[in-house]
Amino acid sequence: MKIINKTGKVVGIGSLTLLPDGSGELPVSFGNNPIIADMVRNGELAFDTEDVKVQADAEAAKAAKRQEEALAAAVKAAEEAQKKDDAPAAESAATTVNVVNVAPSAVPAKKGKKAAATED
Question: What is the pLDDT of residue 32?
Fold first, then answer.
């Protein structure tokens, strides 16, 4: 990950030396270093936002691909169950497809016996 020195001083990170306003590739071994994190919070160092955006885009693409694969597997299971004329399995696979496409906030909360009794 690319890091930028925002101070007026030379900063050394492992084998990387950053001149003022200089940038360089942060060594992998320093990725979770608490001192680097403090320097970023204090504004002394900054991560290259374009590099961070590229990583976030790649992670989002991977997540979308995993979701597509899960959806394809559920559709395939539904088709196979339908071929076998197995209604319970087809219904289960269809439910799986719906669950994959539903956001967690869109799923209605289950009502307990007390809540159902007080509503009547």
Answer: 85
